[in-house]
Amino acid sequence: MAVDLLAFPFIGGRPVLNFLGTLGKRTTEPLERLRTPEDLTRWSEKAGLAGQGVISAGPADLEAARALREALYGLTMSALGRASAEPGDVEIVNYWAAQPTPVPGVAIRSGVLHREDPAPTASAVLAAVARDGIDLLTGPDVESIRECEDATCTLLFLDTSRGHRRRWCSMNICGARAKMRTLRASN
After folding, report:
1. Helix, strand, coil tally for the chain in percent (to 5)
2. What are the pLDDT digits (tens) for 36-81?
3. Within a domain: residue 91?
4. Is 160 inside a domain boundary?
5. CA angle centred on 62, ends 128 and 48, rounded to 5°
6. Strands, E, within the chain: which ranges?
7. What pLDDT band is residue 1 in, cutting at 50, 70 and 90?
8. How distant is the alpha carbon of residue 123 from its chain centre?
9. Whole-number pLDDT of residue 182
10. Per residue in 78-91, pLDDT tens?
């Protein structure tokens, strides 16, 4: 089974956890999926955070996205009891959460009301991710955040399984690999 390692994994269950997945294999050989501003644009569209439009991201937006991602990761590790919260991470997340997001409006055309949505921006996408991170990390769902048990994976996900015993980010990928290793070891 061939897996495109640079494809964005949308298995986290929350936008913020999917955003954290844009850096894979953190503990072995980090795999950066946000390599270019166009990657940030693609992620935003696939995540459904760009509204009906396409964001225009530049190098500064890419740098800001990576900084926000790492700040959110640090705070997530803190929420999981694996690290201390860093004031710099809090500052970055709060900065982005406070950024404005486009607000829809109404217009009259030919006597009929129409919704008008402003063009999405990279800043608005980062604001939405930061707000989702704050909501997740300070709410009841924080107890359901899990890290994939595959030692090379490190993706985070929200465990919504009935018994809260989900072990892998994806049963089809990491879970299947683990089962194959177990099978091979028993032979």
Report:
1. 45, 10, 45
2. 999 999 999 999 988 777 888 999 999 999 999 999 999 999 999 9
3. yes
4. yes
5. 35
6. 23-24, 31-32, 105-109, 112-116, 145-147, 156-158
7. very low
8. 15
9. 59
10. 999 999 999 999 99
Q: How far apart are CA 12 and CA 159, in angstroms?
A: 9
Query: What are the beta bridge partners of residue 145?
Result: 158
48: left (phi over 0), alpha (psi -120 to 50) or beta: left
For 14, the token pair is 């929350």
Contact 41, 32 (CB under 8 A): no
Q: Is residue 86 part of a domain?
A: yes
What total number of domains does the chain contain?
1
Range of the domain at 139: 15-186
The CATH number of the domain where 140 resides is what?
A: 1.10.3300.10
Cβ-contact 21, 156 below 8 angstroms: yes
